[in-house]
Design a protein that fits this description.
The radius of gyration is 19 Å and the shape is globular. The longest helix is centred in the C-terminal third of the chain and has 22 residues, at 265-286. It contains 14 helices and seven strands. With 295 residues, the protein is an alpha/beta fold. The chain has a domain at 6-101 and 155-209 and 275-294: 3-Layer(aba) Sandwich (Rossmann fold), CATH 3.40.50.300. Helix 2 links the parallel strand 2 (29-31) and strand 3. A five-stranded parallel β-sheet has the order 2-3-1-4-5, with helices on both faces. The protein has a two-stranded antiparallel ribbon with strand order 6-7. The N and C termini lie far apart (49 Å).
Length: 295
């Protein structure tokens, strides 16, 4: 059995779901289910998270594609994931996708609200609550970990990237900025294929994946997040891949897509000030001028 040798490590809301979908269409690439979260053992216990390496590898059993990959966006903010991936496969290639914090932050907040992990639906209120959340206060009941509610830390990409650069040779990492992803998607896709060593001329269906969304029925989402023990026990007779697929279908049916409200100018100015130093550090690390992000 071919073991995973390629990982999309993050960041959330930076085009990773789209890239995962586009790569999975390539005849020489198989992407396992997204967000298995196997290597971030310091973070939450996600539904269907593999508990053992055997469980994790079962998602790739019988696959013959040259490249086996897996994407979990919280590998980036995990303190353990980089080292755990290296212990699993020191030759692993790591794809990291990044985005302007002024775009990333409201998008990340919307996703947390959708998942039921954030109960403050107004982004400004959630941003104001960061100090309390860091101290373990005002944590929503269904939020699996405080880390994802620390919006500033989540948007400070530089230290998260350094963990991977300190763990893997630079040539095993590939970075994509969301700006470039939107401007030249076919070109950025081709670069990834060349880096992975597969035929670069393949063109997938570049459909829009994972736009801004809202929950139709909050009670149904809550049930799926906190399934009663008897349901969990009874479902064990069903193969994990079937359970995962059924859950995704229910989730899709419970989703509606809607544009996000524009950010107030006062909040935008506050984010510019808060993110100026982190963006400067990130630009220096990547060798890219990112000043336009805060213009």
């Amino acid at each position: 059995m071919k073991q995973p040798s390629f990982f999309i490590a993050g960041a959330p809301k930076c085009g990773t779901t789209a890239m995962d979908s586009y790569l999975d269409q390539h005849p020489d690439i198989h992407m396992g289910p997204k967000e298995l979260n196997y290597f971030c053992d310091d973070l939450f216990e996600a539904p269907y998270k593999p508990r053992t390496e055997e469980n994790f590898l079962s998602w790739f059993a019988g696959r013959t594609e040259a490249v086996q990959g897996e994407g979990s966006v919280f590998y980036m903010c995990s303190r353990n994931a980089a080292a755990n991936i290296r212990a699993f496969n020191p030759d692993a290639k790591i794809l990291i996708q990044l985005r302007n914090p002024l775009q990333f932050l409201p998008s990340h907040h919307s996703q947390l609200v959708f998942e039921g992990y954030e109960d403050l639906e107004n982004f400004a209120d959630a941003y104001d609550a960061q100090e309390d959340r860091r101290a373990g206060r005002r944590i929503p009941e269904k939020c699996p970990m405080n880390t994802i509610l620390d919006y500033q830390a989540m948007a400070d990409f530089e230290p998260q990237i350094r963990r991977f650069l300190d763990t893997f040779p630079r040539q095993q990492l590939h970075f994509i900025l969301f700006d470039d992803f939107k401007k030249d998607l076919p070109g950025e896709y081709r670069k990834v294929l060349e880096w992975l060593g597969v035929a670069p001329d393949f063109t997938p269906d570049f459909k829009v994946v994972n736009p801004n969304k809202q929950v139709r029925n909050r009670a149904l989402m809550s049930f799926m997040r906190k399934t009663p023990d008897w349901v969990t026990t009874a479902s064990q007779v069903i193969p994990a891949s079937w359970r995962h697929g059924l859950k995704e279908k229910i989730k899709d049916a419970n989703t509606k897509f809607t544009p996000r409200d524009p950010m107030p100018d006062s909040l935008r100015q506050r984010l510019r000030a808060d993110m100026a130093e982190p963006v400067a550090r990130l630009g220096a690390l990547l060798g890219r001028d990112l000043g336009h992000w805060l213009a």
